[in-house]
Structures are given as structure tokens and as C-alpha cells.
Amino acid sequence: MRSPVPRFRDVERQASSLQPAQCLPPCHERPSNMWFIKDACGIICAIITWLLVFFAEFVVLFIMLIPSKNLTYSLVNGIIFNSLAFLALASHFRAMCTDPGAVPKGNATKEYIESLQLKPGQVVYKCPKCCSIKPDRAHHCSVCKRCIRKMDHHCPWVNNCVGENNQKYFVLFTMYICLISLHALAMVVFHFLYCFEDDWTKCSTFSPPATVILLILLCFEGLLFLIFTSVMFGTQIHSICTDETGIEQLKKEERRWAKKTKWMNMKAVFGHPFSIAWFSPFSTPDHGKADPYQYVV
Question: Which of 75, 136, 178, 254 has its CA 20 to 30 A from that of 217?
């Protein structure tokens, strides 16, 4: 027989069983449209991410495109690369500064549970760390210090949790980084071939040794991030299609939610209905009017 889910240890079956002294009154946080985690490691990783994109931008523009004699080649590749880089950084910013689905802190009080008017047999989950009513499929993040709805994992590269509200932006970030890495690698190969056939002093405004070093660094960066982001992108798409977060897969939690089709799961993350807005980090997906607190009999 399968062992019960560990979260059932924190279940409060009756409102009267929760003592008022166990939880502080609900904290009234100032409403803010900006969400930012003050974690030193995450902030450093986020800054490094932006610096690496700017480095790739510098090498692509000043080593490969601007010195090129083919104006059409420079314009087409410049527009494509800069557009993808802009979308990647915009997706990163939205993933970092969007509330991933944090549960209000300190609302697991006797009065609040009584106000829910639970039916006999219904139960609620209580997080002992942030003292909040934990919705089904929510997990506590030790970095964010909050319970996050449908938390997949905490990513230091975006300095945030990947959860119900920002998973779309994280998926777009990995996709666009993967695309600009692939594009940069292709341009590096073509530039090397061009410089081998032509004079190295004429194929770049920098000296030949500096040009080679910068191209090798860009090639290494592009290959590393291509592998990393493509794996993350595939993992996220698989997680969305199966409607099972990374934490749920690792903990092998028993499935207690309704099973939907893969297409419905995709629309639940990227929005209803399918449109070009799926690929825009500036479009907020419509998750529907789901009840934030789900109860299990």
C-alpha cells in the first residue's frame, strides 16, 4: 500500500482544533504590482544572466554583423537576434517580478477557518512555517518564505519560484534563450568559415587574437545555454502536459486532482484560447476563475 502524503500531518479537520495562539493574525501586506525576492544568490544569478546576454549581443554586433560586407545578412540577422534577445530578457523580467502564486500569510486562524463554512468531512491544509491555509498542490519555499500554488521549483537564475502565475514567462525565457543560443552558434560557424577564406584583419574591427577569443567564448556560452535551456524547456512542457509539477514528480505525490487533456493543460498555463499572445511575455494569461482554496474529502 502507498504511504499517505506527508502533508496530511498538517491537516486541521475542525476549526475548533486550531488554537488562536498558534498563529498570528493575518498580516495585511501592502498591495503591490511588483514582486521581488531579496535573495543575494538569486540577485547575483539574475545579474549574471543579463550580463551574459549583453556579452552575446556585443560579440554578435561588433564582431560579426557590423564588420560584415553583406548589408542584407547583417540587417536580417541583427533584427532576428535582437528581437529574440529582447523577448528573452522581457520574459526573464516577468518571471522574476511576477508573484508566482503566493498564499496569504498568517490566515490559518480559527476565525478565518470558521468563516469558510466547511462542510462535514472537508479538510484544509495548514502550513506550520508561514501559518497559512495551504491550497491543494501548494508547497512552501524556504527561499521565498511563502507557500506557492502549483510550485514547480525555485530557480535562482530568475530569482523566483516557478509557480502557477509565472510558469508561462519561465517557459518563454528558456525558449528564447535556447533560440538565441542556436542562432549565435550558427553565426559563429559562418563567421569562422568566412574569416578562414578571407583575411582575418578584414573580417573584424578587433585584432585576430581578440576576435578568436571572443568567438570561442561566445561559442562556449551558446553551446552551454543551448543544452541547459533546451532541457529545461522540454522538462517544463512535459510537466505542463502531464499536469504534474517538478516537486510532485520528485515526491511521487498521489494524484488527487482531475485529469485533463494535454491541450487543456497548455491553455491553463498560456491562456484561453490559443493565439500569438502565447509567445508574448507582455500578455498575462487568463487562468480562469478557479477557487484559490481547494478541499479534499
Answer: 75
